[in-house]
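Example record

The entry below shows one chain as it appears in the dataset: sequence first, then structure tokens.
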Amino acid sequence: MLDYLSSKESISGIKPMYKHMSVYDSLKRIFDIMLSIVGLLITFPILLVTVVLIVLESEGGWLYKQQRVGINGSVFMIYKLRTMYNNCSEGWTERNDPRITMVGRFIRKTRIDEIPQLVNVLKGDMSLIGPRPERPLFESMIVKELHGFRERTKVKPGITGWAQVNGGYNLSHAEKLEMDLYYIRNRSFLLDAKILLLTFIVVIAAKGAR
């Protein structure tokens, strides 16, 4: 684990560090749109087959929508393929969670369930790369422990990101914050390219999914 911040105390007392980068942000938005359109076109056959399998395996719709915290604390509806049985209680997902269907386990492992988030990127709710958006309830709970946690919302949340490719679900909230703040301080096209490459490796190796 990289030691981006020296201690938990330094995280909770952190000062705002976001620096506006208009050229980078504008170009990143263009790349987000282009890559999302290409991604949806390429994965459409996979999505179609997966939707059929979801509907055949268990009752309920194939699309799952949930509120998440976006840039500057705004709330948006995130889109995912349904991976759990219908009408399950919601909470943090655990390893070998019994609420997850057989199809759901496979598409979580391969990250197929996150493909609909490309629509969120097209809508401007998310970017391809950025901190993973939390549910409003969970974020309010985490902020009580880590006051600097909301600094993550200074940029758009992402489908993948520095924290996601460096531990993902296995990270503590403090470690996730360290990773996300590192990305916010150092974001660049070079770092974004590195994250995309690492994301490809993580998906191929089927690491970190729950």
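Notes for this example: The first helix runs from residue 8 to 12. The chain has a mean pLDDT of 86.
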